[in-house]
Structure formats: structure tokens, C-alpha cells
Amino acid sequence: MSLDKIKVIAFDADDTLWENEPIFKSAIEAFCSLMAPYGAAEQCEQGLYAVQMKNLPLYGYGIKAFTLSLIEAAMTLSNHQVSQRTVSEIMDIGQFMLEADNPILPGVKQTLEALTQNYRLVMATKGDLLDQERKLIRSGLEGYFHHIEIMSNKFSSNYKKLVTHLDLAPDAFLMVGNSVKSDVLPVLDIGGHAVHIPFHTTWEHEHAEIPSAHAQFRSLNDISELLPLLGV
Amino acid sequence: MSLDKIKVIAFDADDTLWENEPIFKSAIEAFCSLMAPYGAAEQCEQGLYAVQMKNLPLYGYGIKAFTLSLIEAAMTLSNHQVSQRTVSEIMDIGQFMLEADNPILPGVKQTLEALTQNYRLVMATKGDLLDQERKLIRSGLEGYFHHIEIMSNKFSSNYKKLVTHLDLAPDAFLMVGNSVKSDVLPVLDIGGHAVHIPFHTTWEHEHAEIPSAHAQFRSLNDISELLPLLGV
């Protein structure tokens, strides 16, 4: 891909800069243990996912949305038999998630440090405003970013707005992230560049086919491979 | 106040551009009816407010945060005696709120229409990203705004970032809103201008003393009074 024109590099945050999905995985495990009297773990996970998908247009992403879906799923899965104590325990799972640490992924700090010399860096993430701001502040990475964009969705239209807001031609924009569906396909769609860095675990909702060959797309194993790719 | 330097006018959204607090008031009434077996309405409202204030740093603003606090308050107020059906009914209150209409306040459209000829207009609101975007799109007012800022908080530091982001001197910035605490005091604090337009009902958390006399502050009865104030 021709990378000469790139001026702005935007990074997804969850599972690109820091671990996040493992917190959700653990929460789902804890939830399905609480739900064990009403069915097998697999059934619980499927029931929860169905509730999450139903609520997505109304609730959006993030831990508060997830917690509300946990409570609703508990009612559905138990046929309203779940105890009030269990409801309180489910609320505690949500609060625990909000306070959990998101460890920075290997190579992130050094890569941002090197790239910030030559590019304007942006963080572009979905999710809850307050959650994402809190994670960013805790991460100590805030100083590397020229702009923080917290998006309700990562559709092509959202990226188009971002690129316009940054006063950029689409091919001056490179997006880096772990989700093909959210960080790659919509960016290629508007004429931007995209780098996919897979994380070991991906939420079912974010699954998508990797583009087979595209002049503006690359897949890397590790964020630090961005430096040789960009000749930094 | 000397208004000649003003280039950007930012508007709070909830209860400044459209009705919002009445939706919360109705929800609290509905909730306290459900809680009637466990105590008087006044006690219920106080208990709920205490839970909301405890959760504010973790949950932030918005309807999802409010719904989670309703459920927690139901557990506390009923000493975990509240039925599972009631928990589901409380979740329904939250979903109903997310889908509720927010009627545009009188004079808003005409005022924005007139101001947009001479100023850059910004919407600056607290709350949930997805909720606020949804309300804006439904309102049909989106086209008047050059920039939309959805903020996790409205502290001086948040306004300082906004003014920097807009590449403005603080005294080129005028904030218009119904909350003295969120829309007036922090803006005066950073050297901006502020106009207070009271709404007939204000959330307890937003109460603050109106500044007695300040060169960069004015109180108006109605948004359309902005036009003669600014000589438009």
C-alpha cells in the first residue's frame, strides 16, 4: 500500500491499545455461573447474546448497556425465578467491570512514542463516554493523542464525519484496530487505509471476513510492526 | 456585557433546546408508585437520589446510568423484597425513557436559524453518547450545528478543552443553558460568556446559586431573547 500520504493514524482502543474483551469474557463466565440453576453455560451465553443484540440499537455499547442486558437475560433465562440477591450480584459484576484494570498491550507505548514524531495520532473508539475516558486517563497514554473520538458506532458514516472533522483526505487517514468489522471494512469503504492487528479473542458481534487483497489494507501480528511498515 | 468578540455560541441541549427533565420526573413518579409498598414517595425519592449520587462518579449521566440506579434503589428500599416482575417493570421504565420524545422548546428553531447566519453554533451536552445523538437526529436541529460536543462532565477543565479544540479565545465563546452549575459557573471560570435560561424544573443535583453580578453573565427568560441581546 502507498503510505506516503498518511498524515493521521487513528487507533482503536479496546483490545488494540489495552485489554478489554477478557473483562467481558470473565463477566459472562461469572454471570453464567450464577445462572447455572436454570441451564447450561452454552445456553446462558446464547440467551445473553440474543438479549444484547436486541438491545444494541437502544442501548449501544459499553458496560452499562451490558449490565442492563445481564439483568434482562437473568429474568428471561430463569423465567423470573432468579433471586433478588442474584440481581444484586449481577449489578456488582457491572460495577466490578467499571473499576477493572485494562492492561496496556505489549509494544503500545514505544510504538506511539515513535509514531507521534511523524504523525498526528488519534484515538477512535466505540463505547461509553465516561468508561473510555477513564480507561484513557488510567492508561497514561493520553499525551500521545492529538484528538480523542468516542463514537456511538463505527459505520462508514461515522468515519466520514471523523475524517471531515480532522480536515483530511480519506487516503491521508490510517485506522489501526483489532476488529475487521469496525476498524477495517468501513474505513476501506470511505477510501482510507486500514491495518488489522488481531487480538486473541473477539466478541462474536465483531466477527467479519478479512479482506483478501486490498491496496489499502494490511494485517500485522503486533502493533510494533507498524514502525517498519511506515518506515519509522 | 461586551459581546462583540463572540464567535461561537454553544447550547446545552436537555431543557435548553428540548424538554428532558419532565421525562425523568415522570420516571421517578412511576418508580415510586412501584415502590409504594415499601415506603412513602418522599422517602423513595430521597433513597433514589442517594443511590444516584453514590453511583455518579462510576456511572456518569444518562438514562442507562439512571436505570441501573433505579434497580439498585429498588433493592435497597425494599430490603431485597421487591419482586422480579417489578425489576422487569423498572427496566421497562428505562427503555420507555430511551424511546420517549423530547419536544423542542418554543422559539428554539427560529433562534438557531437567525444566529447561524452570524455565528458558529455548537451543541455542548452531558449524558450518554447514543442517547444524545438520537435526540439530536430526532430533533431535526442537527443542521444548525457546526460541532457537537458530548461531554462526560461540564467542569471548567472540560470547557477549557472544548474552547482549545475550537481554536478560540475564551471570551469569543458564549455558552447558553438552563443549569447554573453546569452551563454558567464553569464557563465564567475559564473567562467565557454565559447566558442562563431557566427551565421550569431542575434536577436537584444541578442546583446552584445564580451569580449576582458578572460582566460576562446574563439571565434571560426565553431563548429568543438572545436575538435582541446579540443585536441580531
Describe this structure as you would to a colleague.
The structure is a homodimer. By secondary structure, the first copy, chain A, is of the alpha/beta class. Chain A folds into 2 domains: about 10-20 and about 105-230, HAD superfamily/HAD-like (Rossmann fold); about 20-100, Orthogonal Bundle (DNA polymerase, domain 1). The first copy, chain A, has helices at about 20-35, 40-60, 65-75, 85-100, 110-115, 130-140, 155-165, 180-190, 225-230; strands spanning about 10, 120-125, 145-150, 175, 195, 215-220. Chain A has a 6-stranded parallel sheet with strand order 3-2-1-4-5-6, covered by helices on one side. The two termini of chain A are about 15 Å apart. The mean pLDDT of chain A is about 95.
Element layout with pairings:
2 copies of one chain form a homodimer.
Chain A: E1 8-11, H1 21-34, H2 41-59, H3 63-77, H4 84-99, H5 108-115, E2 120-126, H6 129-139, E3 147-151, H7 156-165, E4 173-177, H8 180-189, E5 193-196, E6 217-219, H9 226-230
Parallel strand pairs in A: 1-2, 1-4, 2-3, 4-5, 5-6
Helix pairs in contact in A: 1-4, 2-3, 3-4, 7-8
